[in-house]
Each structure stands twice: as structure tokens, then as C-alpha cells.
Structure prediction request, 343 residues.
Amino acid sequence: MSALRQEMLKKWLTGLNEFEFDLQTLQAASSDASFRRYFRVGEANNVRTLIVMDAPPDKEDVRPFVHVAGLLRDGGSRAPQVLAQNPEEGFLLLEDFGNTTMLQGLNTQAEQKDAFYMQALHDLVQLQANTRTEGIPAYGADKLLQEMNLFDEWYVGKHYGVELTDQERNWLESIKGMLIQSALSEPQVFVHRDYHSRNLMLISQAGAAPQFGILDFQDAVKGPLSYDLVSILRDAYIEWPEAQTLDWTVRYWEAARKAGLPICEDPGEFYRQFDFMGLQRHLKILGIFARLNYRDGKAQYLNDLPMVLRYVRLVAGRYIAFKPLLLLLDRLENKAVKVGYTF
Prediction:
């Protein structure tokens, strides 16, 4: 944070007459893959701590965050309360959900794994069933394609320095078309877009029934029902055996039907939709993680590429239509093809 931004932030906080802050407690809380930064500040007399979002207005717009937070809270989801806002300068004052992400909770309370995921899936069903989509964009074909094209540009082109052949471009164009068609054929609901273990904050005490607060929802769209399920169950930051993922997917499917969501009645077909949606998302993520390294200097995201690549190979190895993608990955990695098709 520049000295100028810091002074602007302190001046804004000081001018919020309904709060009395101890500015000596102002400290970095976290950052994310965007230009946003988060700070924690205490109120005088240790009443509570609050979070300040710093989003430089030439890089980020805080208004979508405020709008989506309102939609989520109106629908009964636990999004942080926006206590004060200054969209012109790019500052928000937010409820503090603490320091512990679901991912950190999983690492320290391994015995709570199933309870954590069942609560996260319950919260997801409630979010999808009760959150209005007014004022948020549709997750259309153009956006889905634009995201997958990041794979070509940043993962293939920048990370490997490889130029696609005409045949490979045709293969990818066909595969992307199938993935887009599948996504658009799904029921369209509120989609968080990053509903995963780093964006769910564990706000319950250890040993108690888990409760989560939801963050990083400002890019929400109206889109495919399976998208957020892929985000949480094929998370780019923690991996589970396929049998476990299938079990949780079936339990989500049952809960979604009970809640009246327009989910596919055939669980096998829904799992195919889940696979296809996952492949779209993970092609995008390979491109984004490469871009975060080469454009933004955030090299830590390269450490997460192997897990995402395993997800891509898992799905590409399951459907014969995606064999060309395996061939491309093998060319990039100089690996021999080892695949058994089930569909």
C-alpha cells in the first residue's frame, strides 16, 4: 500500500464519526489475486476489530461487492455486513470474520472434514435457492470462451512458450464449444464463482458445529448450477479422492432436489455436467495462475498448477471427445498417453 493510499485510508476512517478507531492497530489482514488489499483495525477500548478493503478505483470497483453482499444477506447467506463505504476512493469498512479459512480449518481439524463439507454444501444449496440475481451479469458464451482462451495465451503460450498448431487450435475450438454448450444447457442460478476453501471463513469455535462466512463474491454472475459445486469439490487448493468427491456430489444433488432447485433428475447426467463445468473452470484457472506469475509477479500460484492439471487430466481421460486435449498436454509435458475411457 502506497503512503498516499495509507494516508487517504486513515483520513477516511478518522472521519467516520459513528466509529472510534485505534489507528495504531491498523495492520495488513490479507490480499487476493486481484488489486484489492485488506486491513484489520481495532475500535477503541478493544470493542471489536473490523476489516477495511482497499481497492484502488483505477483498478477495482467496490460497488459490485456492495451490491452482491446485499443480495447474499437478503437471501440469508452469511456475507459480511458493509458498515461504511467510499466508492469514489475505493474503501469499504466490513464486518470481520476472523483469520481462519475453511482450508486452514481442514488442516488443523482433520476429523471435522465431513462436517465442514456438509455445512459448505448446505450453505451453497441455500445460497442458490434464495439469492436473487438482479443486477448481476449473465455467464454467457462470450465470457465462458474468453476465460478458456486464457489457457491458450498464458498456459500454453507464456508458461510453455509453445505455439498451437492449426490442428490443435481446431481441437480446442471444438472442445470449448462442447463445454460452453453444456454450461448454457444447465439451469442458471446465482453463481459466486469462487466458492472454495480460501473464501469460506470459519467463524465457529473449534469443536462446535461449523459455521462459515462467505468472501470474494464480487464477480458473481447468473450461470450454471454446477459451477460453485465444482469450485468447492474440485478446489484448486485442496484435493480429495474421486470417491469422496462423488459422495459429496450425490449428497449435494439430494439436498438440491429437496430444496426445489431445478437440478438434473438423473444423477449420472448431473455428474457429467459437473465434469464438463470443471474442465471449463480448470482450463481457465491454468491460464489465470500462469498470468498471475508472468504478468503480476505472484509466483506462488505456480505451486498450485499441478493439482489443477490433475483435474484437467481426470476429466479429459474420462470422455473420448477430450482425447485431443490429452494429446496437447502430453506434447507440452513430453509424456506418453496413458488413458482409459469410460464414456
Observations:
- Residues 3-95 form a domain with the Phosphorylase Kinase; domain 1 fold (CATH 3.30.200.20).
- The longest strand covers residues 21-31.
- The chain has two domains: 3-95, 102-333.
